[in-house]
Design brief:
Elements lengths: L3 H5 L4 H21 L14 H21 L2 H25 L1 E3 L2 E7 L2 E3 L1 H17 L9 H19 L4 H6 L4 H6 L4 H19 L2 H17 L5 H28 L2 H11 L10 H12 L11 H4 L11 H33 L4 H25 L17 H19 L6
Antiparallel strand pairs: 1-2, 2-3
Helix pairs in contact: 2-3, 2-15, 3-17, 4-5, 4-6, 5-6, 5-16, 5-17, 9-11, 10-11, 13-15, 15-16, 16-17
Length: 419
């Protein structure tokens, strides 16, 4: 039996170092983003930066507790974690506090619990437990259906809040399914549907449908003798046309006006630097003004004079760009990339299928947040409001990301065993 003490010292300290570095970077940048001259101390607990320190300490204590638990605990209790988060996602729809149009927080004293953040690690755990079961093949319809339900149920509940950004996070877990045997054609088809989605938003639905029919006609004409090919193209065309009309319906009837406007700004359909495009415009100004080395700590004018809304949460990367410049931004991005590569490398060396699947889930969730959050601050993707892991202000997000990561660290520490 492996000694718990040896397991603790078998923790991957490179990931621990990156985690602590990102938390500290976040703490200092939150201090800069919401700096109050009346309360200048970074440890003042009456301020958001003081509260973030408490969140960091709490997260570290929780991470240490996770490292002391038995590895089998996470596998055995994964259905319970999943069930509890689903219950919380239902409860928040009735008793949750509405902030910014999303009813996503359950008030607990002065703390606001966001169940959607905790649903990420619980979903990864249950998906890992199911996919690590014996005699499962992702080519089987039943297996795909169950995996789909594990992902769709929390996604649907989060969409009811409605919190589109958090809901979209679960789509990143398609990479886990791909690693475990899902056909690469699925990713290609997914990319094609994304292209159709963008084309439908840029042009008339009927124009896109007509283009699809024309392409299908050319392909069929060039392969008249191949009946199976013709059937595949015909079915694919019908499904694609149904999809673009669903996109048109969802865009015009389901998305809220501010969400449509944010997408239109990114696509260049509207230019509204003082309205829906204000956040993005100010974000670009802040990051661009930082130059190579930045303006210096607490010296960012865009930051100091509150030109960028939500700068301590969704737009925290603007503070990094303005005050620390390209050099500081590069360091932050390099830390994330190193973290992701390290997690994937550790996941690949596992003897336990459960740990491998969970590791890929951790990497997928972190990559989605990292790419989307930074992408929306520089105009690559629409503003959907998700935090930058370990750096953005917020107790729920920091604690949930810590749980997500430290569970993997604990599982990896026992990599010579099999769960």
């Amino acid at each position: 039996m492996i000694n718990q003490r040896s397991l603790f010292f078998n923790i991957d300290w490179i990931i621990i170092f990156i985690y602590v570095a990102l938390c500290v970077i976040g703490w200092f940048n939150i201090h800069a983003a919401v700096y109050d001259p009346q309360n200048p101390s970074i440890v003042d607990l009456d301020t958001n930066y003081g509260k973030q320190l408490l969140f960091i300490v709490t997260a570290l204590i929780l991470g240490a507790v996770i490292l002391l638990l038995d590895n089998k605990f996470f596998n055995a209790f994964s259905p319970i974690f999943y069930g509890v988060t689903l219950i919380l996602l239902v409860v928040v729809l009735f008793v949750g506090r509405n902030v910014g149009g999303n009813q996503a927080w359950i008030p607990i004293g002065s703390f606001r619990l966001q169940p959607s953040e905790f649903a990420k690690f619980s979903t990864c755990l249950l998906l890992a437990k199911y996919l690590s079961s014996t005699n499962l093949k992702l080519q089987d319809f039943q297996t795909l259906l169950i995996c789909g339900l594990i992902l769709v149920i929390p996604t649907a509940l989060i969409m009811l809040q409605p919190d589109t950004g958090s809901a979209l996070t679960f789509t990143s877990l398609i990479f886990v399914l791909y690693r475990e045997g899902l056909s690469g054609y699925t990713l290609v088809i997914g990319a094609l549907f994304i292209a159709l989605f963008v084309l439908t938003l840029l042009y008339s639905t009927w124009i896109v449908a007509g283009l699809l029919i024309a392409v299908a006609a050319v392909l069929i004409a060039s392969n008249k003798k191949n009946r199976s090919f013709i059937t595949t193209i015909a079915i694919g065309t019908v499904i694609s046309i149904i999809f673009i009309f669903c996109v048109d319906f969802a865009y015009n009837s389901i998305l809220q006006s501010h969400q449509r406007n944010r997408i239109d700004v990114i696509l260049g359909k509207i230019h509204d630097p003082r309205g829906e495009g204000y956040n993005l415009n100010q974000s670009k100004i802040a990051i661009g003004s930082g130059g190579l080395w930045g303006k210096g700590y607490l010296q960012g004018t865009q930051t100091k004079y509150d030109f960028v809304p939500e700068q301590s949460t969704d737009f925290i990367f603007c503070t990094v760009g303005e005050e620390w410049g390209f050099a500081g931004s590069f360091v932050v991005i390099a830390l994330y990339v190193t973290l992701l590569i390290r997690i994937i490398n550790l996941a690949e060396r596992q003897r336990s299928a459960f740990t491998r699947v969970y590791g890929y889930g951790v990497a997928s969730i972190l990559f989605f947040h990292f790419f989307i959050n930074i992408g929306m601050t520089i105009g690559l993707v629409p503003v959907i409001g998700i935090p930058l892991p370990f750096i953005s202000y917020g107790g729920s997000s920091l604690i949930s990301f810590t749980i997500l990561l430290f569970i993997f660290l604990k599982l990896d520490s026992n990599r010579m065993g099999v769960i």
